[in-house]
Amino acid sequence: MVNRVELDKRTDDDEDYNPFLDRKIAKPNSTTGTLIHLIKGSLGTGILAMPLAFKNGGLIFGLIGTIGICLIYVHCVQLLVGTSQKACKRSRVAVLGFAETAEVVFADGPPMLRPYSNIARNYIDFMILIQSLLTLCLFQIFVASSLRDVVNNQQQIQWSTLVYIALATIPIAFITQIRVLKYLVPFSALANTLMITAFGITFYFLLSERISLDDKNFWPEWSKLPFFMSTVLYAIQGIRYVLPIENNMKHPEHFLGVCGVLSKAIGFLTILYVVTGFFGYACYGEDTKGSVTLNLPKENGLAESTRLLAATAAMFSMGLSYYVPMDIIWRRIESKVPEKRRNITQIVLRLVVLILLTGVTMGVPELEPFVGLVGSFCSGNLVVLVPVALDIVFRWPNNFGNYQWRLAKDCLLGLFGLLVLVSGTIASVRNIIALYQ
Fold first, then answer.
1. Which band of pLDDT confidence, cut at 50, 70 and 90, is reported for residue 210?
2. Strand, coil or helix: 317
3. What is residue 391's three-state secondary structure?
4. What stretches of 228-292 adopt beta strand conformation (E)?
5. pLDDT tens per residue, range 153-205
6. 3-state SS class at 110
7. What is the number of alpha carbons within 13 Å of residue 327 lying toward its C-beta?
8. pTM for the complete prediction?
9. Is the preceding peptide bond at 397 cis, omega within 30 degrees of 0?
10. At 249, is the secondary structure helix, strand, or coil?
């Protein structure tokens, strides 16, 4: 928690304080290593949903809109990291995480907002928790859908997605019991290898398919625009990893800037997203599914293996994805549990949360509504609204530049974030409700 007294003891010499020099990191990441980690944080199953984004946005608008949203994303991340670095300098601390940055900014902000610093921290933790849990539900659906398509096709059976969700939960239950981060490294490494292989094979199919643009949409319908924005934001989501990655850099001064690590990573990802989305929708048109791997030809053995590779990668990724929300939950209840019961409590807690998530997944066993919901509700908050709000609070009242242009720009970004949040969430919820009608 932020110590208000310590913040008030700052002196004029604090302007000379360099938080980067105070960082004590045993094994810091190189600039190249940071670039790789940042790309890995955003390059997951989300990229396989990009053809769905182009299906909702059309080929021309999808191309322009994806580039535009990626530019907004990189700017909002720059706002977040820049605010965190300046907050470190102002409060004389070496590093701050996402939630800690929000707490410090509010605690040192306008007097009327200072009492809400703890609420700001809790809000960030809550949003990261919701995003992580919804993403886990999406992973379960993705694994089950991929297994359903392969097994049903190969064995000539007609088992429903619900059966495969239940079957996939068994190995997932063991993977999600791993509590030590270093023990998850082999699973994450294997997941990355499998996902890269699956993406490479998928890309081969996309580029080798015969493409016709005659029956494709070039521009979106207004009703589908929220789904486009939400899907792109879901695909690029990785903002919860940004500050932990930046905090472990050997040269954090290389993170921001026009030619910084962040710009290079998002530039590379933008190219991948645009190419995957464009060719995916151009190949499969209105038949495009929530993951392009589900569109690959069922009679082709290589395509079938791609679905299995991607499903296995998603399953192994759930260990690391589960670590984040469980860490947030456990930090809040650990002190209330007797020490001798903490081990069994963690085992039961992790199993109960997984069972609850499985129940939600079985209630809505479709990819598309979850993709939109995660992208609109979670990314609309964490990617756009929160960085903008922190920038405004930190700069208030006299640090917005000539004619208050930074405030005007932040307000416009905030309106965009609200548009994505409200319209995308409503549209996704309506889709979920429509599944039962």
1. confident
2. helix
3. helix
4. none
5. 888 888 999 999 999 999 999 999 988 767 877 887 788 788 888 888 888 88
6. coil
7. 13
8. 0.84
9. yes
10. strand
